[in-house]
Structure formats: C-alpha cells, structure tokens
Specification:
single chain; globular; alpha/beta; about 350 residues; Rossmann fold
C-alpha cells in the first residue's frame, strides 16, 4: 500500500518531530511540529498520536527532543519519567523508553544527542519493517478464506493501521496485503466509541481503495451470527505472557460473539507489544480516561465546520475505561513479525527476540 501521509518524522537538524494530529481526523489533515519534551508528552497524552507502536516511537523521539536542552543523566532521567507517565496501558511506550535508556547509557556521553536521534529513528524504521512482516504472515490467513469463498470479509475494531504505527499497521496490514494481491477483501469497521477510532480506519481504507462498511459497535454480534464475517482481526496495546490481550474497549465483546458464532479471532501485533512481566491479563493496567470523552462528541456541522456537542449533562457520572482484556482462550492466533503463533506460545517467542 502506498500512503500520502506519514504519522511521524524526526528532523534532528531542525531539532523537531513532525506528527499528524489524529485528534482532528477524519475531518482535517493537520501536521504539527513538536520541539520539546513536554510537547511530545502532551501529544501522547492527548492522543494526537495513538496506537501502541506509534506511542512507543513518539516517546523515543520525545527523549531525543529532551536531550536538545541538555545531555546529562538528570535530563535523561527526567525525560524517561515524564514520558512513562503519559499513558499506562500501551507497553510499547515502556519498551521504547527502556531501549532508549539502554542505548544512551551504553554510548559515549559526547555523542548522546546524536545517538538519541539515531536510536529513535531505528525504532521507527524497525516498527515499519515488523508491521510489513505482520502483513505478509497475516496474508496467508486471508488467502485461505478467499480460496474457499472467492472473497474474504474481515471485521476489525478501533484503528490498527498506518495511523497507529510508523507504517503498514498491524491488524490492517494483512488487509492491505490482500488488497494489493488482488484478493476481494471487504472490511466491517466498527465505530469504536467513545473515541470513534473506527472513523480513522474508515479514512485509511477509503484512501487505499479497500471496500468497507462502517457499523455501530453493537451491530457486530448480529453480523457474526448471520455468517457475514469470515474472521476478526484486531490490534493490541499489551499482550501478557500467556496470550491474554488488552485492546481498545469493546474488543472483548467481539471476541465473545465471534467465539459463540464459530468465527476465528486473531490479534496482530509486533513482539514489542508483549509484556513478559505480566503473567496474564489481570496484571495489565487499564487506563481510565476522562468522562468528557463519553459526555461529549465531535463532528462536522451543517456548515462544514467542526463542532462538539453534549450527549449527557456535565454532572452525569461516567466510567470510561479505555481498554479491556480478551482472554487467550478466545484468540486463535497472534500474528507477529515472526509468524502466526498460538497465544500460549507468545511469551516464549518474545523471549527469543
């Protein structure tokens, strides 16, 4: 798949990082420049960048930005602490920060700033390569369905495409690979409220020319029961050592419905998303976000401008967990850059990397 957009680009000569502001999509395509640690941290926290792999890449570049102001250990430690506190669930954040810390502590102090930019760029490049491999391995799953039925109908949830990564996407990577291979692929895109990240998936698929239909989240079970879905592929924000997987809220319900209807359910994620310190899903922290995301909704008004309206009274009590955990027993396979593996094997595979 060719893309006309880039989610993130580091510029060490200018001392800045350019991001695509995803809080304005799909209505506006706006790029912003980050020049400081605080701006990078806010971009992650506010979800101007989102998706576990891209959060990790942004955090790595955030360290490079921080070292523009000073390359001493205290500055580095402050940068790592600040960025770790931005979002709790996506394990790629800590994975990238640990990698930056190790590389910078091991390297010569007099080239620490340059090394930070190089290491951050390596993390971005490797993410794109890994996701390309996820697409290649996942393609075989779609080819098998297409060989039997002449087409393949995929359901997904949230956005796990180009926008959530440094390239190709995770759950969408096999879909893009199938489309490029000439397979008749159709995608059921759920809204993914309250953040409506399914609209980002719709935006991507429209740009790529992939056939798709947007559905209300609650329509998923109906479509699965009617046999209108061949397989489900979702991304992941953190995978425990036993294969339990945290993904955007609502994923668990799709997994339950798919299991009841005999539809295979796959997770696509790079091995950097595996947290071997988490024995199972109970150890995965679940981010609780502001109730305003549920109370209010943004869209385009009749005049074509952006508007935000209230759905609930400001005093209405709201619980807004951003993720849920799908048990490994509901997952057929996890599609990684090293191939498709059973959930119970993911911890061992990640340890071998």
């Amino acid at each position: 798949m060719q893309t006309a957009f880039q989610t993130i680009a580091g510029d060490p000569h200018a001392g800045r990082v350019r991001i695509l502001d995803q809080t304005l999509l799909p209505w506006q395509t706006v790029y912003r420049d980050l020049a400081t640690l605080d701006e990078a941290a806010q971009a992650i926290r506010s979800m101007q960048v989102r998706g576990a792999p891209l959060i990790g890449v942004t955090a790595a570049f955030g360290v490079a930005l921080a070292l523009q102001a000073g390359d001493d250990d205290q500055t580095l430690s402050h940068a790592l602490t600040t960025l770790r506190a931005t979002r709790p669930t996506a394990v790629n954040l800590n994975w990238a920060l640990d990698r930056m810390r190790n590389a910078l502590h091991a390297g010569p102090a007099d080239v620490r700033r340059d090394l930070a930019w190089r290491e951050a760029q390596s993390i971005a490049d490797e993410d794109a390569l890994a996701n390309g491999e996820i697409g290649r391995h996942g393609l075989a799953l779609l080819q098998a369905v297409a060989a039997a039925h002449g087409r393949v109908r995929v359901m997904t949830h949230c956005n796990a495409g180009w926008l959530g990564t440094a390239g190709h996407g995770t759950a969408l990577a096999p879909i893009y690979a199938a489309h490029a291979a000439g397979i008749a692929v159709e995608v059921w895109v759920s809204e993914t409220r309250p953040r409506n990240q399914g609209l980002l998936t719709e935006w991507e698929l429209a740009q790529a020319g992939v056939a798709h239909t947007v559905i209300a989240d609650n329509a998923a079970g109906h479509l699965l029961m009617r046999g209108e879905v061949d397989l489900v592929i979702v991304g992941a924000d953190r995978i425990a050592a036993n294969g339990d997987t945290a993904n955007k809220i609502g994923t668990y319900l799709k997994a339950l419905a798919a299991h009841d209807c005999g539809v295979v359910f796959h997770v696509a994620a790079p091995l950097s998303t595996v947290d071997r310190k988490a024995a199972d899903g109970a150890a995965i922290p679940i981010e609780q976000r502001s109730g305003e995301e549920v109370r209010r909704i943004a869209g385009r008004d009749a005049q074509g401008g952006l508007a935000e309206v209230s759905l609930l009274d400001p005093d209405t009590a709201v619980s807004n967990p951003a993720f849920d955990v799908t048990p490994a027993r509901l997952i057929r396979s996890i599609i990684t850059e090293r191939g498709c593996v059973a959930p119970g094997q993911i911890g061992e595979l990640a340890a071998a990397v």
